[in-house]
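Narrative summary of target 7.
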Amino acid sequence: MFRPALLPYLLPAVLGLAAVPPADAADASVDLLLVLAVDASGSVDDGEFALQLGGIAQAFRDATVKAAIAAGPQGRIAVDLEIWADHQVPKDSSGWFVIAAPLDAEAFAARVETTPRTQNGATGIGEGIAAGLRLIAESGFEAPRRVIDVSGDGRETPAREYVVLLPQARAMAYERGVTVNGLAIVNEEPDLLAYYDTAVRTGPGSFAMATPDYRSFAEAMRRKLLREIEDRPKLSSR
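Modeled conformation, tokenized:
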């Protein structure tokens, strides 16, 4: 039986694109440490899931995004794709990729768009953020800015058993100086942006954006990445 929890270890071997941990302090220094936390809960069908991953891949292939990465003091960022859904299910991760050149962006884009779906069920945003915090803590990278980029189409659903729920996860992120930004997909919940603005985003320079549907996701992700890479927050932190 395939085990979702093993996905972070299986994908690098299958695709030949293993994310190598930094070898020394110089390798470990990046401008931005970014977790892309993607919703794969039951409200997201397979086509919508594919549009999310395809949108992220398209955004990293965009010339303006590549230029923004190159323009930073270090000229490089580290990024990890995390896929979350039910509170109780282990999250999937691509492993960390350092983006320092166009070929790096293409390697990450290829990984993202070929990632299989293993998640489903409830909308465990808090556990998704908590998993992102663990990825950052264990990354081995140093960065002046650490960001978890949450995208989704619904509010957190109540958990049947104790887990890290959204208020606790936000507090953990805030205490650790990690920014949580939100991209609300509002096709089913027109007021979801307000929820992401008040209940999801937190930390230094945090912000929330909306996209009207999944087909508009790629352009929204491109604009969101530019704001995160160039450190252009629009809203005050909380």
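Residues 30-150+202-231 form a domain with the Rossmann fold fold (CATH 3.40.50.410).
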